[in-house]
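Narrative of activities, Objective 1.

The group set out to show that a structural description can be obtained from nothing but a protein's sequence at a throughput compatible with the screening campaign. Below is one input-output pair from the validation batch, recorded exactly as produced.
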Amino acid sequence: MSNNITSEASPRGGLFSGVDVAPAPAAPSLLEQLNGIFFEPVTLFRNLHRAPAWIGATLLMAMLTLTATTIWGMRVDVDAMLRPSLEANASVDPAQIDRIIDVQAKILPVFAPIGTIVAIAMLTFLPALLFYWLAHAYGEGETTYRHALAATAVPNLVMLPMQVVLVAIVALGHIGGAKLDELLPFSVGFFLRPANIKVVALLRQVNPFFLAVYVMTYFALRHTLRVKPAAAWSGTLLCAAAAIAFRVMAVR
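Output recorded for this entry:
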């Protein structure tokens, strides 16, 4: 009788089961994520499926973005940035232009960082909801919202060099009245500037770092969330189209 009870030990293992339980896999550290995103992205995103991590990547990129935005908001020449468009706008009373510029110069150093924080939160958690839905609708394995957050945050690490350069530019270079996206020397729009500002904004999206993010997003959908290839491509293209449309439509 006692032999039968002993032989039917719980398959989950435990202190008295005689079965060794393997420890849960450790999530890749931030340094491992940085190494993986540039040298072994597929392996990295497979490891993130076993143990998702997203906070370190989010905080690092948020810190760099917030630093660049804050310094730019304090150093940009608001008059040079706004006056040409205000004078070209027939609906703006010329007598009010100076007052508008003065107000914007006072609030920009405060609201630029606040807007950045809000944008980072939205661009982290909202795409993760889409990815989470894709994983449940078209996934081939069990995933959680933490997997979706990892698939949203970690691909952005590929833009680390660009963000470091941007911080150096706004801190040390001449800004004048340039907006942040006008300072990045990586896009086609930095070198070709047609008269149509919407076309210029579109050309600024032809940036190798932006393209790299989209590739990494596909890898994340495919290997971290285990989404089927067609759905992974669809999710990647949808995110790319939304990002490009937002940046182009935001130009005034």
